[in-house]
Design a protein that fits this description.
Phosphoenolpyruvate Carboxykinase, domain 3, alpha+beta, five-stranded mixed beta barrel, globular
Length: 289
């Protein structure tokens, strides 16, 4: 395949991407739907220039690999060619986290109901993305699966609507729950295991310009067979946990510190351990929304 150029119009950012890997192009078309723009549109301002390209030389024939570039910088080691689309997704996350200074960025899912947003920071393996997929397909609006973009000195979060990254056992669960969902191909044997991406609903893409007020932060942890456990965090606990999940907290300095401090003074703060998603939904609606 000759290299192809396309753009992803993902408010508040526009990416221009070059690839010579069919799998990357095909998945981008499928997942990003109306936000996929074919070709090089020089009339539009581009925030980030990215590429996912095949390795050259012998590697192009024997165990072909994919390489990710942000401009000319290559932040990751090459991955298996079949992991190219997942690499693009991780690369977009890295690009925004490494360069964006206009927002305080928290590594978290963000979902909205009735104009009120809850952020869900969580480490890998906590079940965050499975919970996100469930909420986003059951009456909640997806703002992000990966990062909360918070306007400094406010409680307002800016949507950055992207697909939901599901791993291992969650893949079959999601396909059972959402048989009409739009899924990427499976990236096998990544450092996170098997990975797939679930496209946002079209209306969530269309509502990407609608900001929301943060009313709560919930740190979720899935544990099979357990009844719902709820722990209300004090301000110091919540601040510490949010700071641990902040991508650019150090880079923006005092503005980040003041924003997070102000935020946790105003919002509900919880840590939960759960196994039943309907119990989580009831808790969110009764105690936060």
């Amino acid at each position: 395949m000759k290299s192809k150029t396309f753009q992803l119009d993902l408010s508040p950012f526009r990416f221009q991407i070059i690839t010579d890997i069919d799998l990357v192009l095909d998945n981008a078309k499928r997942i990003y739907q109306q936000k996929f723009i074919d070709g090089d549109l020089s009339c539009h301002y581009i925030d980030y220039q990215l590429s996912v390209m095949k390795s050259g030389g012998v590697r192009s024939f024997y165990k072909p690999q994919a390489r990710f570039f942000c401009d000319t910088r290559e932040p990751f080691k090459p991955l298996n060619h079949n992991q190219g689309f997942a690499m693009l997704e991780w690369g977009m996350n890295w690009t925004v986290a490494a360069h964006e200074l206009q927002h305080v960025i928290i590594h978290s899912a963000v979902l909205e109901k009735n104009g009120k947003a809850i952020i869900f920071p969580a480490p890998p393996g906590s079940g965050k993305s499975t919970l996100t997929a469930y909420l986003a397909n059951n009456g909640w609006r997806l703002l992000s699966d990966e990062m909360a973009l918070i306007i400094p000195f406010s409680d307002i979060v800016v949507p950055f609507v992207r697909p939901i990254c599901l791993k291992n056992q969650s893949i079959d669960i999601a396909k059972t729950w959402f048989p009409s969902g739009v899924f990427s191909s499976v990236a096998k044997d990544t450092h996170k295991g098997d990975v797939i991406h679930l496209a946002p609903k079209p209306e969530h893409f269309e509502q990407a310009g609608i900001q929301a007020k943060i009313v709560g932060v919930v740190f979720p942890r899935f544990q099979a067979g357990t009844a719902l456990e709820i722990y209300q965090l004090d301000m110091m606990e919540a601040f510490t946990k949010l700071a641990e999940n902040a991508f650019n907290f150090t880079a923006i300095g005092k503005d980040g510190f003041d924003t997070v401090t102000q935020l946790i003074e105003e919002i509900a703060k919880f840590e939960i351990c759960y196994s039943q998603l309907d119990e989580v939904v009831d808790f969110l609606l009764e105690e936060i929304i």
